[in-house]
Write a structure and sequence with these properties.
The strands form four sheets. Strands 1-2 form a two-stranded antiparallel sheet. A hairpin with a 6-residue loop joins strand 1 and strand 2. Helix content is 38%, strand content 20%. It has three domains: 41 residues, no CATH class; 26 residues, no CATH class; 44 residues, no CATH class. By secondary structure, the protein is α+β, with helices and mostly antiparallel strands. The mean pLDDT is 90. The chain is built from five helices and eight strands, in the order αββαββαββαββα. This is TRAF-type zinc finger domain-containing protein 1. One of its GO terms (molecular function) is zinc ion binding. It holds the Pfam family TRAFD1-XIAF1_ZnF. Keywords: Acetylation, Metal-binding, Phosphoprotein, Zinc, Zinc-finger.
Length: 120
């Protein structure tokens, strides 16, 4: 948007009404000649690998932060799995034990970060 001198406003308004259309989905002003392409590229419904139907323009954000099948790393072993399996894996993985080199006790992996403070 920019300021339009009053003398040119009527001409501008006529030009806009002939050439510009407001998208019914996102309310953006789009040239009429590009509206079909805009709707097909931005608002067409696609199906994510998780079977959720979503607008094409929102798919990348969904895949990165909301999709239950997005990749996720275990905080204990760095194995990559899907986000929907992460919690179950981390419960199991964090409960494994490793021998402490300092005191020789078996320590659960989930407690290894805090263990040096109480070791010995």
């Amino acid at each position: 948007q920019k300021d339009i001198p009053a003398a040119n406003f009527i001409i501008h308004e006529i030009h806009c009404s002939r050439n510009i259309e407001v998208c019914r989905y996102c309310s953006e002003s789009i040239p009429k000649s590009e509206m079909k392409n805009h709707i097909e590229s931005e608002h067409v419904q696609v199906t994510c690998k998780c079977r959720m139907k979503i607008e094409n323009s929102l798919l990348k954000d969904h895949e990165a932060s909301a999709c239950p099948l997005r990749p996720a790393l275990c905080q204990y072993c760095d194995v990559q799995l899907t986000f929907n399996k992460l919690q179950e894996h981390e419960i199991y993985c964090g409960a494994r034990t490793e021998t402490c080199g300092g005191c020789g006790r078996n320590i659960m992996v989930k407690d290894l970060k805090e263990h040096p403070q109480v070791c010995g």
